Amino acid sequence: MISGYRVAIVALAGAWCSFAEAQCDRWQQRVKYTMEVALNDKDHRFQGSTRLVYTNNSPDTLREVFFHLYFNAFQPGSEMDVRSRTIEDPDDRVGGRIAELEPHQIGLQEVSAFRQDGKAAELRPMGTVLKVILAKPLLPKKSTTFEYTFSGQVPVQIRRSGRDNAEEVAYSMAQWYPKLAEYDARGWHAYPYVGREFYGVWGDFDVTMEMDSAFTIAASGMLQNADEVGHGYPAGKKALKRPIGGKLKWHFVANNVHDFAWAADRDFKHTMDQVPGGPELHFFYKDRPEFEATWNELPGYMVRSFQHMDKNFGKYPWPQYSFVQGGDGGMEYPMLTLITGKRRIGSLVGVSVHESVHSWYYGMLASNEGRFPWMDEGFTEYASSEVMQELFPQPGAPHASAFAGYSALVKSGKHEPPSIHADHFITNKGYGTTAYSFGELFVHQLGAVVGEKELRAGLLRYYDVCKFKHPEPIDFERVLEKRSGLELDWYFDEWVNTTRTLDYGIRAAIGGNGATQIELERIGEQLMPVDVRVERRDGSSVTYHIPLSLERGVKDAGSESFAFTALEPWQWTDPTYAFSVPVEFSAIKSIVLDPLERLADMDRSNNAIDLSDGSSGFARP
Asked: I need a surface site. Which of 13, 234, 388, 500 has the fewest CB within 10 A?
C-alpha cells in the first residue's frame, strides 16, 4: 500500500536556469544560388543557368556532391512510377498515371556544362539523382563555385509539381531546378524521389524567371522589380515600366531558406493583406466567380493564424508569405504554399493554416523529412489544431482526431515504427498516419508527462534554440528535459523506435479502515505516467498523478491548469501499482484513469469504474 503525498520540485540552480543551448548547434552546410530560367509556355520546356557557391562547413573533405533532379520522376519506369504501381495502397493522385505519360507530357531535368571553379567535373546521372565527381576535393571550412546549365520539360501535373492541373492552373513550379542534396553528420541524403517530402541546404536564392508577360508569377522570396512587373505587386512611388506584350523578367530574392518554388498563370488574381507586426500576405487564385467569395474571406483568417503562431510557437522571420492556387492539394515551400482553391471556407482555411504552419516546422526548423517525417507533419498538425481551435472554437479536445487516426492504424495491422525512413514504409497509410496522426499525438501526449504549460513553453524554447538548424528528435528531447528536469529518453525511445501500444486499466478498488485502496495494472507494453481522478458523491474530486520511475522526478505542480497530488513513482518493471486514498469507499462515486484522455490508451473500457450503485468493492475479472 502506498500513501499519497505532495511532491515539491526544488528549482535547480545553474544548469536549468541558464538553459544551455540544445544540441542543435551542429555545423550546417551553406549554399548561394544565382539562377536564371526561361520557360516557354508553348512547349513547356525551360532553359536555365546557375552559379552556385557551396560552403563546406563539415569536418569532412568532399570529393563528390549530389543533386536532386525531381522532374525525372515523372517518366514511365521511374522509381516513383514503379513504387506507385507496386505499393499495396497507391496514392490515388499518382496510381498508374506516370506509366501512361506520352513523351510531350513527361518531366525532364538535365544538367550540362558543369564546371567547378572553372574546371570541368564528371556527371553521372542516376534517375532523380545526379552524382558529380568534383574536379578538385572540397576541403573542410572552404567554399567552391559550381557553374552549370540545365534544361527540362514541365510534366503534366501529377504530384505537387507540373502544368495544367485539375483546376486549370498553368504551372506549379516546385522541385523544378537541380537542387543540391544535403550533407550533414549522417552523410549525404540523396534520396531518390518516390513521392515523399524533402530536406535541403540552408542558403540564399537569387532567381530570375522569364515568361510571356501575360502570366502572373507568385514565388518564394521578395520581388525585386515590381516597377517593371506590375501584376498586383506594389511598386511604391516608382512608375510602372512593364512592357506590353512580349517577354517579362521577374526577379525574386529569398534569403536563409532551403528551397525555392513558384507558380504562374494568365488568370491569377493577386490580393494582399498585412499581419500587424508580421509579414505581408499575398493571395493568388484564379479570377473566376466560383472562387471569389471564399478567397475574399481567407485573408482575415490567415492574419489571425499568423498572429496566433507568432505568439504561441515563435516569430515568423520573413517579410512575406504567399497562398497560391496550384498543386494537387496542399504543399509547403519557403514563404509560399501551393493549395487547391475549389473548397468551402472551412476547408480552405484548414489547408491554408496547415501549410502556412509548416513555415515553422518545415521552413524554419526543417528536420530531415526523410528520416523524421513525424517531426514536420506531426508538429505542424499539433500547432494547426491549436490554431483551428482558436479560429473555429469547438467543444472537446482539439487533438482527438490524432488519437483516432493512430488507433485505426494500430488496429489495421499496418503500424510500423516511426523511425523507419519515409520512403520505406510498406504502405502509404502507414506512412501518412505515422507522420500526421502519430506525430501530433506524440507532441500532445507529452503534456501528460511534463505538464501542459511546460509543453507549451518547451515548444517555444525548441523553436528559439533550434530554428535554422535541422533539429533531430534528440534536440526536442533535450529541450524538454532541461525545462522540466525530467528524463525523457524512455518516451522518445519507446514511442519512436517501437510499435508497442499503451493500455492501462483499473484492476480493483476496495474500502477499509476509512480509506480506499485502488490498484492499477499495465496491460500493454508501452510505458507512461498516469493520472487518476477520484470523484466523491458530494461532487468534489481530487486528481492523483503517478510518475514513471524512469522520469527520475515528477512534473511541477504549476505545470498544469488543474491541481493534482503526486504519488510515489510507478516502478517501470511492476505490472501493477496500488495506492490508498483517505476517502471512505461508500463516499466515492467514480474512479477514472486518464480523465483528460491525453494518453493513447488503446482500450478505454477499463479506464473507469462507476460506484454509484452502492457496491462494496470492485475487482476486474
From this structure: 13
The per-residue pLDDT for range 297-320, each reduced to its tens digit, is: 999 999 999 999 999 999 999 999
C-alpha cell at 439: 506525430
Q: What does the chain come to in residues? A: 621
Name the strand (E) or helix (H) holding 187.
strand 187-188
Res 377 pLDDT > 80? yes
Q: How confident is the model at residue 13 (pLDDT cuts 50, 70, 90)?
A: very low
**Amino acid making up residue 223:** L
Q: Which CATH number fits domain 25-212: 2.40.10, 2.60.40, 1.10.287, 1.10.3860?
A: 2.60.40
Work out the number of other CB atoms within 10 angstroms of the CB of residue 14.
7
Q: What is 504-619's CATH number, 2.60.40, 3.80.10, 1.10.8, 3.30.70?
A: 2.60.40
535-588 per-position pLDDT tens digit: 999 999 999 999 999 999 999 999 999 999 999 999 999 999 999 999 999 999
DSSP H or E stretch at residue 124: strand 122-126
CATH 3.30.2010.30 region(s) of the chain?
261-365
Which residue shows C-alpha cell 482500450?
603
CA angle 551, 555, 558 (to 5 degrees): 170
Measuring CA to CA, how many Å separate 229 from each of 47, 264, 266, 284, 457?
Answer: 21, 13, 14, 15, 44
Give every CB contact of residue 604 below 8 A, 6+ residues apart in sequence.
594, 597
**One-letter identity of residue 145:** T
